[in-house]
Design goal:
With about 250 residues, the chain is an alpha/beta fold. It contains eleven helices and eight strands.
Amino acid sequence: MSAEPASARPPFVLVHGGRHGGWCWKHVATALRRTGHMVYTPTLTGLGERAHLLNQTIGLNHHVQDLVATFEFEDIQDAVLVAHSYGGMVASGALEHIADRVRRVVYLDAHLPLSGESVFDMIGADRAANHLANAKNNGEGWFIPPADASWYGVTDPDDAAWVNSRITAQPLKTYQDPVGDTDRAWSHPGMFIECVPSSLEPHMLNRARGRHATDPTFSYHVLHATHDAMVTAPDAVTELLRTAVGS
C-alpha cells in the first residue's frame, strides 16, 4: 500500500476543557501521531502544568489568545481544530482570528456559543449558581476547585487516579466572561460529537442539531461514551477525528 500523501495528513490542534490540560489528550494524540499527523495539545493559562500561573485576572480572552498564539508561533496551517467542553468557547472565539488556518473545527461535547454568550449562559442559572457557591466556599471567591474524575464520567480506577492527579482549579472569570464575535465559527465547516451521556444542557445539544439540519458543512455524530471520552474511549474519538480530515 502506498503511503498516504502529506496533504491528507493535516495537523490536529486539540483544546482541552475546563479544569483539564493538554495532558488529557495523551491517548488520542499518540494514536493520531502514529498515523502521521502532527498534533498540538496546548494547555491554557492557569491550568494543567501551567497551574502555577493561576490568578483571578485570567479570563476567557486570555485562553482565546493562548490558542491564537499557538497557531501563530507554531505556524499551523490547514488544521483540524478539536475542542472539548469549555474548549468550545475558546475555539469559537479564536476562529475570528485563525479561521483561515483551520480546515475543520470539531466540537467534542463542547459549547457552541453565539457572539457575546458566556459559559454561564450555556449552562443555565442553576448550574451557574452552583459554580458561584463552590468558588465562594472552596475557591477564595475567584476559582472553581478541582472536581473528582467521576464528575466527568471517568470511573475506571486507573483512569480516575490518573485524571485526579492532574485536574486543577479553573479561574471563575473564564466562565463569566462573554465570548467575542463567533460569526466565523458559525460559518466554518464543522462537526459536533455528542457524548452519551452528555454533560451539556439539552438546549445546547438542540442548538448543534439545529445547525446540522440547516448547514450542509456541519455534521453531527453521537458517541456512546462519557463526557471525558478522550480518556474513556480514546480509540472511538480518534476514529471520529480521522473522519473530520476528509469531510
